[in-house]
Amino acid sequence: MDKLKVASLFCGCGGTDVGLLGDFTFLDKYYPSNNMEIVYANDIDDNACRLFEENFRIKPDNRDIREVKSSEIPDFDILTGGFPCQSFSIVAQNPKRLGIKDDRGKLFFEMCRILREKQPLCFIAENVKGIMSANKKEAFPLILEEFEKSGYTITHKLLNSANYGVPQKRERVIIVGFRNDLGIKFEFPDMPITDENEYVSLGKVIENAVADKYFFSERAVQGMMRKRETMNKGRAQDITKPCNTVGSHLAKVSLNSTDPVLMVNGRYRRFTPREVARIQSFPESFKLVCTESAQYRALGNAIPPVMFWYVANVVGRLTIKTVSYTHLRAHETLRH
Predict the structure, then answer these.
(1) Which residue of the set 11, 13, 49, 85 is catalytic?
(2) CA distance 282 to 252
């Protein structure tokens, strides 16, 4: 059958999309194709769009999604998006409703708008762990309710990328919804790694030699040491274990922050962009363009492709089965 068509919102540099498409190798393990194709991508960040275009040969629409009419988006089967969540508030009404503090909060509603107006077969949404406790745990149930009101049967789960063969402890909430009329209740795949002793270690993805510019100055080290006892700074990683979560501001990482760093032969250093890509489980074939600062930001914001592949693989198989069954029933109806 034809490939499943995907519309990717807030696509960033494409971590979600690498996982969706499959057909890539990470640490000598091959992740097969999920029989999908990206037909539309949207992100407002110019550098992220450039990285996406370089790797997928698709030029993302970089307009504010609020300016994009649903009719302008090609037809698709699956909608994906990691919507911003910093701006949700609970409006004091009876019943309580999901409100917004600034414009970023409106982007979630745009995803729901497109779901209501396009009614694809399913969607996959992603967000940080903190969304579950936002507004004293009141926001998340209302977010799920908005997805349900869009016409979808919802399942969600908190996943840790280390359980899926990623050399990083990164927790993300994944929400999957199938259109109500399909009668599908999604179940998340089993974790391939449940024993922490079998986690993929950071040591498998770091480089033996890097340029001096990645090392912190002696002055920075001494400043950190003066505060280390009271502030728990200088968080050098144990390379025999997965890395702590890498963030979007790695270009400005400091020893006085909570960001993970390395200690090599008594010297502290930050990760290179390629190391960050590996920590996130991007394949070596993923091209890094733009400035290093832009690369750090885009990679740090991305979802680990390998973890997302496992979710997309089950979603894809369910969707293909549904599409094939629908086509078969339609063909039988025509025959009779």
Answers:
(1) 85
(2) 22
φ and ψ at residue 269, rounded to 5 degrees: -145, 160
Q: What is the CA radius of gyration of the chain?
A: 21
Find, among 40, 1, 322, 314, the residue nearest to 180 by Cα: 322
State how far the Cα of 187 lies from the Cα of 318, in Å rounded to an integer.
10
For the chain, 336 residues long, the average pLDDT of each consecutive 10-residue run is 92 97 98 97 96 97 96 97 72 63 74 97 93 84 93 97 98 96 94 97 96 89 72 79 89 76 90 97 97 94 97 95 60 43
The DSSP bridge pattern shows strands 267-269 and 262-264 to be antiparallel
Classify residue 181 by its DSSP letter.
G
Annotated active-site residue 85? The verdict is: yes
Distance CA 177, CA 150 (A): 10
- pTM here is 0.91
State how far the alpha carbon of 50 is from the alpha carbons of 15, 53, 66, 324, 331, in Å: 14, 5, 21, 36, 43
Q: Using the structure block, give the residue that is written with the tokens 């914001």.
A: 301
